[in-house]
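Checklist before submission:
- one chain only
- standard amino acids only
- sequence pasted in full

Submission:
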Amino acid sequence: GGFSACAEATTFGQIEDFDAFINQLRTIRPNPQTTAYSVIPTESCTTDVVCTLDAKQCADGSFVSRVPPSCEFAACPATR
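Returned file contents:
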């Protein structure tokens, strides 16, 4: 199982509202032993590419998921 979601800035009234939403998402601190969670900006939620839901554990204990269209793992927080 797994969960994936995408939110485009165009669904919000103003870009400031979207930025506030993204900042709020980034405050979530999941349990690194049970939950993989990442916030990755994207230009569009529309994609024909579906990546596997596996995750990579980063040096800081957080996890990153694969990002379409290449399905490479997202950068770990310490390397961004």
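Reviewer check: The mean pLDDT is 76.
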